[in-house]
């Protein structure tokens, strides 16, 4: 059974499924849906056991441990964290077998990036969809973001005017994580109460965060020193490199669309419109577009894939060093004159 993320809280108040899959390419919504399941399981007395699925994951060991259960934990939330949107044959078979033999006292929670098309049609995914709940997280598009922001404001106790929600979306330039952070800041500043566009303007205008979005702006503006400073701060704060890569790739994809359209004869403004670039983002995107050509963008995309492999352990290297190289290349100043070619 498929379920939208906003329906998960209501679902968890009723009869639970024996298995859950949370997948999508909006990290904030994936994280919050999974957290809701964990919280509800904890409230019902479940002990959580977490497994990280790496390229060489021992599925036989996982299956034996999960089916045998624990003498000290009669109820377990068995969490599988996938680093890729697919499973190898051994994983496919293990999940299908588990779903047929699972202890009814346990609940399986699988958390994954957006599933590849082959994975969506695989036996394990179909079996989970039939026997459990699949929380499908779709990207929140620009036109849906104001409604999402208004709903989140209500959840946090605000009575917000439509103009307040629209202003918030404009100021955070379409980033869900930034939007959620600003709502939390509004709650700290004002407490739950009616707010209008002026309240949002005053609060968001004072924001000066060292976060992934400031880092991305430094890259696009061609400011490697600023990028390096913020990247070091994020590493010190324990931010996952996956989130940093996601933010860089998100902007890279948008720049790629603009660059490609302009190479085909479109004006910058027309290309931005087709790519869904927010008005406030256009000066930043323009800076990047002035430096890049389609061939450069393709090399950067390949370099990002290389960083992804390093993060997942498929290639040797330090993820933060690789992110530094990618950021400098995107800023127009490749480190040591390196080529972006990927082996």
Explain the overall architecture.
The protein is α/β, with parallel strands linked by helices. 57% of the residues lie in helices and 11% in strands. Strands 1-6-2-5-4-3 form a six-stranded parallel beta sheet, with helices on both faces. It is globular and about 60 Å long. Residues 206-210 and 338-343 have low confidence and may be disordered.
Give the mean pLDDT: 86
Q: What kind of sheet is the major sheet?
A: 6 strands, parallel
Beta fraction? 5-15%
SS-based class: alpha/beta
Shape: globular
Number of helices: 17
Short description:
Helix content is 57%, strand content 11%. It has 17 helices and 8 strands. The protein has helices spanning 8-12, 27-43, 59-68, 89-101, 117-120, 123-131, 145-155, 162-171, 176-190, 197-205, 212-220, 224-236, 241-263, 268-275, 282-291, 294-312, 319-330; strands at residues 2-3, 19-24, 47-53, 76-82, 107-112, 133-137, 159-160, 194-195.
Note the main attributes of this structure.
343 residues; six-stranded parallel sheet; disordered C terminus; two-stranded parallel ribbon
Strand and helix layout:
Blueprint: E1 2-3, H1 8-12, E2 19-24, H2 27-43, E3 47-53, H3 59-68, E4 76-82, H4 89-101, E5 107-112, H5 117-120, H6 123-131, E6 133-137, H7 145-155, E7 159-160, H8 162-171, H9 176-190, E8 194-195, H10 197-205, H11 212-220, H12 224-236, H13 241-263, H14 268-275, H15 282-291, H16 294-312, H17 319-330
Parallel strand pairs: 1-6, 2-5, 2-6, 3-4, 4-5, 7-8
Helix pairs in contact: 3-4, 4-6, 7-8, 7-9, 8-10, 9-10, 11-12, 12-17, 13-14, 13-16, 13-17, 16-17
């Amino acid at each position: 059974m498929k379920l939208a993320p906003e329906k998960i809280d209501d679902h968890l108040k009723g009869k639970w499924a024996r298995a859950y899959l949370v997948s999508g390419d909006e990290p904030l919504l994936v994280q919050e849906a999974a957290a809701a399941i964990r919280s509800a399981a904890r409230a019902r007395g479940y002990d959580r056991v977490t497994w990280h699925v790496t390229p060489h994951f021992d599925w036989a060991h996982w299956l034996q441990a999960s089916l045998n259960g624990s003498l000290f934990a009669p109820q377990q939330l068995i969490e599988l964290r996938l680093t890729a949107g697919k499973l190898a044959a051994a994983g496919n078979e293990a999940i299908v077998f588990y779903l047929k033999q699972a202890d009814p006292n346990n609940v399986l929670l699988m958390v994954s990036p957006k599933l590849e098309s082959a994975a969506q049609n695989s036996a394990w995914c179909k079996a989970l969809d039939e026997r459990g709940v699949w929380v499908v997280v779709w990207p929140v598009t620009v036109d849906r973001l104001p409604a999402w922001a208004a709903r989140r404001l209500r959840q946090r106790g605000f009575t917000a005017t439509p103009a307040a929600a629209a202003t918030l979306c404009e100021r955070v330039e379409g980033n869900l994580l930034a939007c959620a952070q600003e709502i939390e800041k509004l709650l700290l500043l004002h407490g739950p109460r009616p707010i209008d566009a002026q309240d949002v303007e005053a609060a968001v205008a004072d924001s000066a965060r060292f976060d992934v979005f400031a880092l991305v702006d430094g890259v696009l503006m061609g400011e490697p020193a600023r990028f390096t400073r913020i990247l070091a701060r994020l590493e010190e704060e324990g931010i996952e490199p996956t989130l940093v890569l996601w933010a860089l790739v998100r902007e890279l994809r948008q720049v790629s669309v603009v660059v490609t359209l302009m190479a085909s004869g479109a004006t910058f403004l027309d290309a931005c419109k087709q790519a869904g670039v927010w008005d406030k983002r256009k000066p930043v995107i323009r800076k990047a577009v002035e430096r890049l050509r389609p061939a450069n963008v393709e090399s950067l995309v390949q370099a990002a894939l290389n960083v992804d492999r390093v993060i997942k352990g498929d290639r040797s290297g330090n993820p933060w060093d690789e992110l530094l190289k990618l950021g400098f290349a995107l800023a127009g100043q490749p480190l040591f004159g390196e080529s972006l070619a990927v082996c």
